[in-house]
Design a protein that fits this description.
Blueprint: H1 22-25, H2 38-45, H3 55-58, H4 66-74, H5 78-86, H6 92-98, H7 110-113, H8 121-135, E1 150-154, H9 158-169, E2 173-178, H10 186-189, H11 198-210, E3 214-217, H12 227-233, E4 236-239, E5 245-246, E6 259-261, H13 262-274, H14 279-282, E7 292-296, H15 300-311, E8 316-320, H16 332-341, E9 344-346, E10 349-355, E11 361-372, E12 378-391, E13 394-397, E14 401-402, H17 406-409, E15 437-439, H18 442-445, H19 450-478
Parallel strand pairs: 1-2, 1-4, 2-3, 4-15, 6-13, 7-8, 7-13, 8-9
Antiparallel strand pairs: 5-14, 10-11, 11-12
Length: about 475
């Protein structure tokens, strides 16, 4: 019976949930796609070929049991599908919304290679977990038997929250420290609501809070306590701060009024969505309404910025990227969504200058792709004699993020870092140069995907558990 419900990719066409029309969705910050009806989710899950080597799982950083929960979904066994999905991920409905499935699971689906179109894995994952929340299948976080040891988690983004959950389940007292007034990190303040509505994040945070995890919000290490203070307070620490230092654009006018950082812009927009008072938005500095907007960059953050500007009522929105469409790092689905909503992409272009004390225009050079660089990608180079100029009242710099100087900021010079400023950790134990201080997520690997942060949080919790058990055993012997 189960086999009869699968392998339907020849007879059933690939079908994603319907998107709202571009004009309608550009008028608000709601998610742009509807959710599957149950029958549609079952039909799309039934397209899975149940291949012997599931490349979807292999290419998922969490190694989710994708073919298995697709089969359960096709059979209408949604609660079992959710439980299996939840067994490898602390945030399956979030990954279903924001993972670049076209580069990971769906991009490596066997039937995609056969020309039938990948199984719509992310949309099914979103459906089964949202259904689980509605039906009350998402159980409260149940702490393990108390161990008498406490852990401090610095950073309440996906890596920190994931680590906190796994450690609490093992019975540790867990305290999470974050400089923002709400937990979630980039999930809360960096990713716009049209990709991830904020109640989806907040219900995950509340589940952790109700499970006994203590959140210290508005807490900044280096201001409210030193790293050494926290080491004295807890048996172990994990640093999961992410990377937030914006990469600079070294061109004339980069400090002009109206030239802003992507994260400042996105945070202001998300705070307004929460109903916060945001002076820099309210005075127009971080509001695109009525402005000619130019976004520089080609990653997912740049896509978030251009699509936010459209929703704020910008007069025009252009995205400058120094390579061509095929070589941009952002999701091609996001590019397509942005184009539908009215964004103009200026491929093979890079800024030369931002003109005016208060920016009024952007001068850019046409680029061309030269020889491959060390990464194997063809390096962009200036195409002489080909310059462009655009009107601009707001320029948003979205060239990615680097690590902040944590040893200096936290008065912890002994904290080892790489030449890129990320934290040095032992490849096996995930411990930093400081005994009992671990690290996970982007602060170790550099700016990356949310799904990798969740994986790193899972991995570091396992290593911390081993270390804490050994520490407890040693202390018992010494006593």
């Amino acid at each position: 019976m189960a086999v009869e419900k699968m392998l339907r990719f020849v007879a059933k066409a690939q079908s994603y949930p319907d998107k709202r029309g571009a004009a309608a969705r550009a008028a608000d910050f709601r998610e742009i796609a509807d959710r599957y009806a149950e029958t549609a989710a079952e039909d799309q899950a039934s397209r899975c070929s149940q291949c012997g080597v599931p490349y979807c799982s292999v290419h998922c950083p969490l190694h989710n049991h994708i073919p298995d929960w697709l089969r359960l979904t096709a059979e209408g066994r949604l609660r079992e599908a959710y439980e299996l999905s939840n067994s490898t991920s602390t945030m399956p409905e979030i990954c279903g919304r924001i993972c670049p499935q076209d580069r990971l699971c769906e991009g490596n689906c066997v039937i995609e290679f056969s020309g039938h179109g990948a199984v719509t894995i992310g949309s099914v994952e979103k459906f089964i977990t949202d259904t689980a929340w509605e039906e009350g299948w998402v159980e409260p976080l149940k702490p393990g038997a108390p161990r008498g040891q406490s852990v401090g988690v610095i950073g309440a983004g996906p890596a920190g929250l994931s680590a906190a959950e796994y450690l609490r389940v093992r019975g540790y007292e867990v305290h999470v420290y974050d400089r923002h007034d709400r937990a979630g990190g980039l999930l809360t303040y960096g990713i716009p609501g049209f990709k991830l509505e904020k109640p989806v994040v907040m219900r995950r945070v509340e589940r952790l809070r109700e499970g006994g995890i203590v959140f210290h919000e508005g807490f900044e290490v280096g201001r409210d306590a030193t790293l050494d203070d926290l080491r004295q307070r807890h048996d172990a620490l994990v640093i999961a701060t992410g990377v937030y230092r914006a990469r600079a654009i070294d061109v004339p006018g980069s400090a002009a009024e109206g030239v802003v950082e992507a994260l400042d812009y996105l945070t202001a927009s998300n705070r307004k969505g929460f109903g916060d008072a945001v002076p820099a938005f309210d005075d127009g500095s971080l509001d695109a309404a009525g402005k000619h907007v130019v976004v520089v960059g080609g990653g997912d953050t740049a896509m978030d910025c251009v699509r936010t500007a459209i929703r704020q009522g910008a007069k025009s929105v252009k995205c400058l990227y120094r390579r061509d469409r095929a070589n941009m790092p952002g999701s091609q689905r996001e590019v397509a969504n942005a184009e539908e909503e009215g964004v103009e992409f200026v491929w093979l272009s890079a800024p030369l200058a931002f003109d005016g004390e208060k920016v009024s225009s952007v001068r850019a050079s046409r680029m061309r792709l030269g020889a491959a660089d060390s990464s194997g990608r063809r390096a962009p180079e200036i195409d002489p004699g080909n310059e462009l100029s655009f009107p601009a009242d707001l320029v948003i710099k979205a060239l990615g993020f680097d690590a902040e100087e944590l040893p200096r900021l936290w008065d912890a010079p002994e904290l080892g870092v790489t030449r890129w400023g990320t934290l040095l950790v032992d490849g096996k134990t995930l411990m930093t140069s400081l005994d009992g201080v671990f690290a996970a997520g982007d602060i170790v690997r550099g700016a990356s995907l949310v799904v990798w942060a969740i994986r790193d949080g899972r991995d570091v919790a396992e290593q911390m558990h081993k270390w804490l058990k050994a520490k407890a055993a040693s202390e018992r012997v010494a006593a």
